[in-house]
């Protein structure tokens, strides 16, 4: 691959692409083919199929919440504690639930409370979400919780732990929730398998912001069906990527953009597809795990 495109030429392309708005899909496709050269993304680790990788998906959960703890809403979602940088790693997920020092550091940092610890785990793994919050005066409004920091512990998959213990054969989120429904007394035990803990910041959702996705690591709002998380050491942020994947959950052959990353997104041929917000997006994200191929498009 070229080390980097010519900057003035790239700026010209950015100006020209705005003229494509409203034109036919054929005209847009022809412009893309005339101005960009695809380069297949392959792993440096030689294998029988070096161009094949793994595609998963993530989404923005939408949950009911309360500003104060009350029956049915007892699981807190926290902002960043003041002493987060005082130790690294900070307290683990299990320590946060058990140790008075950790609980004291988080006192007053509760942004809102939700009903289910499994939903809190989903929110932690996705990194952001929307809450329909019941205010203390009884009114409701929607807010976004955006990623603000972590306790610096490594992410550990609770689904993989269940598989390793031969407790389930379905490690998707629907499968995990089904197992917990049959074993509610083991909820905390399972949650503690993942020591990584996420802290959030509250963002207002008003006007055009309500229509946009959360901001990814690149600092721009994600677009449902068009944004992917990548390993930025392999695919630079902002890259246009042609993504091809076919499997039992979805068939994709489309142009997407590398705008985010995640702790589990490692390697060249690896992508996490932003499916959008809400239950339907969550259903796809909970089950998508299939082969993929990718081509980065660079200016000619």
Order of helices and strands: HHEEEEHHEHEEHHHEEEEEHE
Q: Order of strands across the biggest sheet?
A: 2-12-9-11-10-13
Helix percent band: 25-40%
Number of helices: 9
Number of structurally distinct domains: 2
Morphology: globular
For the secondary structure, the number of strands is 13
The amount of beta strand, in percent, is 25-35%
- Class by helix and strand content? alpha+beta
- Rg over CA atoms: 21 Å
Under the CATH scheme, which class of the largest domain?
Mainly Beta
Mean pLDDT: 90
**CATH level 4 superfamily of the largest domain:** Barwin-like endoglucanases
CATH topology of the largest domain: Ribosomal Protein L25, Chain P
CATH structural architecture of the largest domain: Beta Barrel
Low-pLDDT stretches are 1-7
How far is it from the N-terminal to the C-terminal residue, by CA?
A: 12 Å
Largest sheet: 6 strands, mixed, barrel
Walkthrough of the structure:
The protein has 300 residues and is α+β, with helices and mostly antiparallel strands. It has 2 domains: 7-58 and 213-299, Beta Barrel (Barwin-like endoglucanases); 61-211, Barwin-like endoglucanases (Ribosomal Protein L25, Chain P), CATH 2.40.240. Helix content is 25%, strand content 30%. The protein has helices at residues 7-17, 25-35, 93-98, 100-106, 117-126, 158-164, 173-182, 187-191, 279-287; strands at residues 36-40, 53-60, 62-66, 75-78, 110-114, 129-134, 140-150, 198-204, 227-229, 240-246, 251-260, 270-277, 289-299. The chain has a 6-stranded mixed beta barrel with strand order 2-12-9-11-10-13. A hairpin with a 4-residue loop joins strand 10 (240-246) and strand 11 (251-260). The radius of gyration is 21 Å and the shape is globular. Residues 1-7 have low confidence and may be disordered.
